[in-house]
Amino acid sequence: IALSENSSVKVADKEIERAGYARKGAYSALFPSVDGSAAFQRTIKKQVMYMDFDMGSIMGGTGAEAGGGAAMPSTSDGFEVGRWNTWSAGVTAAMPLVNAQLWKSLRISDQDVELAVEKARSSRLETVNQVKQAYFTCLLAKDAFNVYKSMYENALENLQQTQRKYNAQKASELDLTRAKATVANAIPNVLSASVAPASVASVES
Questions:
Q1: Which helix (DSSP H) or strand (DSSP E) does residue 150 occupy?
Q2: 100-167 vs 173-193: helix axis angle to the nearest 10?
Q3: pLDDT value of position 204
Q4: Are 197 and 142 in contact (CB under 8 A)?
Q5: The predicted structure's pLDDT at residue 36
Q6: CA triplet 181, 186, 190: central angle to 5 degrees?
Q7: Contact at 8 Å (CB) between 86 and 41?
């Protein structure tokens, strides 16, 4: 019950779990990484380019005169350039080959896990030791109470016998006073030891 309910043991177990996740995070830096990106652009209104010369004169007259087709647009109005839609995509792959700092971090992570395991084992051993000490303390308190109680009963019986001898004039008043003092000295020990059974009862419950 102590090992399953002790807060120190629970914290130590969680510390092992935390160190394990930290080590996994450190090892993940050794894996190759692949990044991808994509972009799309939509032109709301194209740019208009203007030229300070007549396209018809360069082409040897107007378009209608040269080919009999549609006339070339006038440069005074300008003409649109660019595309309505533009797409772009890219992929990047990387893998660490030489990284001394990362290798050192991995060794430190392994040592952190080992340290957490040792701390958890120490917490368990300490908890077991504390429970054993408490148990033996209870046993000692029981025995001490029985001993003090036995001493008190023996002193009380001795006082009664001394009282009868004193009444029969076979014991002096000094013996009677000494017997009463022995009983009085035994009472505090019994009272102080009587606290132990209550503690033992709470532990056993």
A1: helix 100-167
A2: 150
A3: 45
A4: yes
A5: 92
A6: 155
A7: yes
According to DSSP, the β-strands at 33-42 and 85-94 are antiparallel
Assigned token pair, 48: 């208009």
- The C-alpha atoms of residue 4 and residue 12 are separated, in whole angstroms, by 12
Residue the block writes with tokens 């996994």: 24
Return the structure tokens found at 62. Answer: 């107007």
| Per-residue model confidence as pLDDT tens for the chain (205 residues) | 888 888 888 888 888 888 888 888 888 777 888 899 999 998 888 887 777 665 555 555 544 444 444 455 555 567 777 788 899 999 998 887 777 777 888 888 888 888 888 888 888 898 899 999 989 988 888 888 888 888 888 989 988 988 888 888 888 888 888 888 988 888 888 888 777 555 544 544 4
Separation CA 19–CA 74 (nearest Å): 75
Predicted TM-score (pTM) of the model is 0.45
Please answer whether residues 96 and 29 qualify as being in contact, where contact means their C-beta atoms are separated by less than 8 angstroms: yes
CA distance 20 to 24: 6
Could you tell me which residues come within 8 angstroms of residue 200 by beta carbon, excluding any fewer than 6 positions away? Answer: 138, 141, 142
What residue has token string 């300070």? 52
d(CA 107, CA 57): 79
Pairwise CA distance, residues 102 & 108, whole Å = 10
Cα 179 to Cα 158: distance, rounded to the nearest angstrom: 7
